[in-house]
Design goal:
Layout: H1 3-6, E1 12-17, H2 23-36, E2 41-45, H3 51-62, H4 67-92, E3 95-99, H5 102-112, H6 117-128, E4 135-140, H7 143-152, H8 165-181, E5 186-190, H9 195-210
This protein binds thymidine-5'-diphosphate.
Keywords: ATP-binding, Kinase, Nucleotide biosynthesis, Nucleotide-binding, Transferase
Family: Belongs to the thymidylate kinase family.
GO molecular function: ATP binding; dTMP kinase activity
Amino acid sequence: MSQSECKLRGKFITFEGIDGAGKSSHLAAAAALVRDQGRRVLTTREPGGTALGEKLRDLLLREAMHRETEALLMFAARREHLEQVIEPALERGDWVLCDRFSDATFAYQSGGRGLDREKFAQLEQWVHGHVQPDLTLLFDLPWTVAGLRIAAQARARDRFEQERADFHERVRLAYLERAAIAPQRFAVIDADQARDVIQKWVEQTILVRCL
Ligand code: TYD
């Protein structure tokens, strides 16, 4: 067996939650933790993560479109991301920490927009039937809290952040539903807690479940 065949595949960890849940800053801290354990880590995001994916992200965050177009573009960006970035990194033995993945499409396009779930399932199977995250951290909190956090930030809101409260609550419920279907993959935290409490939980969860 060659050296590359012996090499252990890296871990694939995704960070999910409604807008304003705080997942992105916890991703950065988690990357530092995993690096401290001597692993090579790649941090990335969806939609995006490749040159083409970032162009699609720009469209997705700004242009109004049919919900199926939205879902197809999310998966188109994901196809590139898997092929160019995620799969090669995991095969090299690197860990991949990704800000959102297909659970976001389930939550936002199916839960939020009402995309047919069978169509979601077909796209997921088509684009990455063979790959799922090893661990998905879901930062859960009500929109009443998350929306206030976003309102306090001095920056323009994207197309999703501008949606009404009922949209965000549907996204939240869809995330929780998805977590309940795959409890072995998901870990869910109440994200309406002090930042250091959540960070400790993130560290513990990764140490226990992946290292
Ligand atoms: P987000 O991680 O919130 O970016 P930022 O932290 O820079 O605001 O992602 C951008 C938006 O894209 C977010 O509102 C959720 C949305 N989204 C979907 O609707 N479906 C998807 O499949 C993905 C990956 C993201």
